[in-house]
């Protein structure tokens, strides 16, 4: 069993993001290449973004702190603390409307058929 304080980790990652030239920081909370489930805490300073990219597969985003906008070519969704957003299975982007931290959860196939 492993217990992690997302609140403490969010503070730490936001501090790191604020000092990074990209305005971003990320930390894998759980998972990795050998797991199907991967959870990553991502901190973004206001105005910074993850530019449009392919969908990682089945994925969700939970807003821990701040406000973000997740969008694709068809729509955009704003998220605030406590919001849970299902990520579209199309190209999309994520922008921080203010200093923000989100928990990205992705389920991916592993093994020879991945």
TrEMBL record:
Superkingdom classification of source: Bacteria
**PANTHER family referenced in this protein's UniProt entry, alphabetically:** SLR8022 PROTEIN (PTHR37694)
Q: What is this protein called?
A: LuxR family transcriptional regulator
Q: Which organism is it from?
A: Mycobacterium dioxanotrophicus
**Source lineage:** Bacteria, Bacillati, Actinomycetota, Actinomycetes, Mycobacteriales
């Amino acid at each position: 069993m492993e217990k992690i304080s997302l609140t403490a980790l969010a503070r730490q990652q936001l501090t790191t993001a604020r000092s990074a030239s990209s305005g971003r920081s990320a930390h894998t909370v759980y998972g990795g290449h050998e797991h199907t489930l991967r959870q990553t805490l991502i901190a973004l300073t206001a105005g910074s973004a993850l530019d449009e990219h392919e969908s990682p597969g089945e994925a969700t985003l939970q807003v821990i702190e701040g406000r973000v906008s997740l969008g694709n070519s068809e729509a955009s969704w704003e998220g605030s603390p406590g919001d849970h957003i299902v990520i579209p299975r199309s190209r999309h982007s994520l922008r921080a409307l203010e200093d923000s931290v989100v928990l990205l959860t992705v389920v991916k196939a592993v093994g020879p058929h991945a």
